[in-house]
Design a protein that fits this description.
three-stranded antiparallel beta sheet; 5 helices; Peptide Deformylase; alpha+beta; 225 residues; 8 strands
Length: 225
């Protein structure tokens, strides 16, 4: 199986190099690979891994996006890349910069806020999109604070706490590796084309106006773990 996988990945990368300067096609919703739990990465790709990581980096940036999981390019392995330049300091999403990094076999667990209090993990709701659901966005409640574990591409351990938008990115990409799409967790009535998101709801990241206009209730922010 590893030889067949290596051959398939090598062919995918070769074709991308020939046709699109190393940018891979992004699989869209409805493809079975997006709904199957990805296999744990245990070195199956050998020396192909750096080529795949570079191709995923190029693909994510070209899209553009802030994260990309291997199943989104048709490879069912637990590998993802993330990167975000961040935004202004007063962004309510807490969208701080995320330098480019590779996540291998990542997992996350929700954490309560720094103050604790026993109320459970805090969740916050914002519009979210996905490169594999092109052209659409919806409001998703995510854990505000998570602990991320796994390794990087060199096998070095990753164990850190993330808050705000970086935590959201990690949850989104790790969910991909479990065969989940953001739509599985979204407020259904919030689903909007990106054209209408820009037309009606782009004035602020706050989803409250969309909740009022589209007729959905925002999730409870605390104690819903």
């Amino acid at each position: 199986m590893s030889d067949a996988l290596r051959a398939a990945v090598a062919d995918l990368l070769d074709r991308a190099d020939e046709r699109s300067e190393g940018v891979l096609p992004i699989v869209q919703a409805g493809a079975p690979v997006l709904r199957a739990p990805a296999a744990r990465y245990d070195g199956q790709l050998g020396d192909l891994l750096p080529r795949l990581v570079e191709a995923m980096r190029r693909t994510m940036r070209a899209a553009p996006g802030v994260g990309l999981a291997a199943p989104q390019v048709g490879i069912s392995l637990a590998i993802a890349v993330v990167e975000d330049a961040g935004t202004v300091d007063d962004d309510p999403r807490e969208r701080t910069a995320v330098p480019f990094r590779v996540l291998v076999n990542p997992r996350y667990e929700p954490l309560p806020g720094p103050a604790g209090g026993g109320a459970g993990a805090e969740r916050v709701a914002f519009f979210e999109g996905c490169l594999s659901v092109a052209g659409w966005s919806a409001v998703v409640a995510r854990h505000r604070r998570v602990r991320l574990t796994g390794t990087d591409e060199a096998g070095e351990p990753v164990d850190e706490v993330l808050t705000g938008w970086p935590a959201r990115i990690v949850q989104h990409e790790t969910d991909h590796l479990a065969g989940e799409l953001y739509l599985d967790h979204a407020e259904t009535r919030s689903l909007t084309s990106n054209e209408n998101l820009a037309r009606y709801w782009a004035a602020s990241p706050d989803p409250a106006p969309a909740a009022a206009g589209l007729g959905f209730a925002l999730p409870v922010a605390r104690g819903d773990s």
